């Protein structure tokens, strides 16, 4: 995959390391980046601000939680996915993506995608599979306010009509207004090695930190933050993580975390001092009792967990009553570019109809699998 159309030598080296690494693709790229680029201390402080005017009307909270999605316990999905974004080749044209990571599906089925290798956020309207729209970044990699550097996740804050973005290699979380004419963002949180984002029904923002192996909660408009999961160093204990990446917050404010190197998904109930293993945790592997580098995840109103596995190239479902093994719902058929195949899946979400959306990192496309 040509994950570096800009020709940047540092990014080329990083991409080569990640492409060759099977045992730990995430850690290799992060370690390589830190050696090459060092620590950037000029991107703000570890605090959050809220300069947008507040809207007194409370809209849908469809962010990384699912208040209105009730997927039947026995639901099935078409095994052939439809490519709704990218899928042509790796590139920076408006009909292309380059190693995409996280995504967010709005209630009108508009999809916003963290286009990692192109340092931008792309928006694709429902029904338009030809071209997307650059809605943040896209001005080459960099740490100025009009630039992004390998974004990994994005969500829509509907109350302020803005995008909140994990700008990973700039070690910051930024916000871009969705209003026409926006040319730059603002820093919400600095000096954080973020990977995943989520928002609860009170507009608290949750951010995973792969450097500190923890998840913190930030209240918009306040400088204080709260440790909600991890924070006890890298490890495999129930109070620890080893590279926490993507997040999901349910209606009870429990936080679900993809614990990448521990090959498990953890659930932290609000106020808990340790988490509960709700998927995997049996070592890396392809058995239904195991996970291999879990990434994007989603929890429906029944408490059913859906998780993408970047190295098993599949999406599995773990029901609330059976935490011993999952069921493959799509993928698991190799890693080529077929309609029934996934290739390094990362971000995962559902629309309000129950259709499944999966980001394919290595084939630079987003697929939609229709619920049957």
Automatic annotation (TrEMBL):
<feature type="repeat" description="NHL">
    <location>
        <begin position="284"/>
        <end position="321"/>
    </location>
</feature>
<keyword id="KW-0677">Repeat</keyword>
<feature type="repeat" description="NHL">
    <location>
        <begin position="88"/>
        <end position="127"/>
    </location>
</feature>
<protein>
    <submittedName>
        <fullName>Uncharacterized protein</fullName>
    </submittedName>
</protein>
<keyword id="KW-0325">Glycoprotein</keyword>
<dbReference type="Pfam" id="PF01436">
    <property type="entry name" value="NHL"/>
</dbReference>
<dbReference type="InterPro" id="IPR001258">
    <property type="entry name" value="NHL_repeat"/>
</dbReference>
<keyword id="KW-0732">Signal</keyword>
<dbReference type="GO" id="GO:0005576">
    <property type="term" value="C:extracellular region"/>
</dbReference>
<dbReference type="InterPro" id="IPR011042">
    <property type="entry name" value="6-blade_b-propeller_TolB-like"/>
</dbReference>
């Amino acid at each position: 995959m040509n994950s570096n159309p800009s020709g940047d030598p540092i990014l080329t080296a990083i991409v080569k390391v990640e492409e060759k690494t099977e045992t730990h693709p995430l850690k290799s790229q992060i370690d390589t980046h830190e050696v090459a680029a060092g620590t950037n201390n000029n991107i703000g402080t570890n605090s959050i601000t809220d300069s947008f005017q507040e809207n007194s009307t409370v809209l849908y909270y469809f962010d990384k939680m699912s208040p209105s999605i009730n997927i039947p316990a026995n639901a099935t999905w078409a095994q052939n996915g439809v490519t709704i974004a990218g899928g042509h080749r790796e590139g920076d044209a408006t009909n292309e993506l380059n190693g995409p990571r996280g995504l967010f599906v709005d209630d009108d089925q508009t999809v916003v995608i963290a286009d990692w290798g192109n340092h931008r956020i792309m928006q694709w309207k429902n029904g338009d599979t030809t071209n997307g729209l650059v809605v943040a970044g896209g001005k080459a990699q960099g740490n100025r306010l009009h630039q992004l550097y390998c974004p990994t996740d994005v969500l829509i804050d509907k109350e302020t009509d803005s995008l909140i973005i994990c700008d990973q290699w700039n070690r910051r979380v930024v916000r871009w207004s969705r209003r026409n004419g926006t040319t730059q963002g603002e820093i919400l949180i600095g000096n954080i090695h973020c990977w995943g984002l989520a928002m609860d029904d009170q507009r608290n923002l949750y951010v995973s930190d792969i450097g500190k192996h923890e998840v913190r909660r930030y209240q918009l408009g306040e400088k204080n933050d709260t440790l909600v999961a991890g924070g006890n160093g890298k490890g495999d204990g129930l109070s620890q993580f080893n590279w926490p990446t993507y997040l999901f917050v349910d209606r009870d404010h429990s936080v679900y975390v993809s614990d990448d190197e521990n090959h498990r998904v953890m659930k932290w109930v609000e106020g808990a001092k340790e988490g509960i293993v709700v998927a995997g945790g049996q070592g890396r592997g392809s058995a239904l009792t195991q996970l291999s580098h879990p990434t994007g995840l989603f929890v429906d109103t029944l408490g059913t967990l859906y998780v993408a596995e970047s190295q098993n190239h599949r999406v599995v479902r773990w029901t609330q009553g059976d935490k011993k093994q999952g069921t493959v719902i799509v993928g698991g058929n190799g890693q080529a570019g077929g309609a029934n195949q996934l290739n390094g899946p990362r971000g995962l979400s559902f629309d309000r109809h129950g259709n499944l959306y999966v980001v394919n990192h290595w084939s630079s496309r987003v697929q939609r699998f229709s619920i049957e």
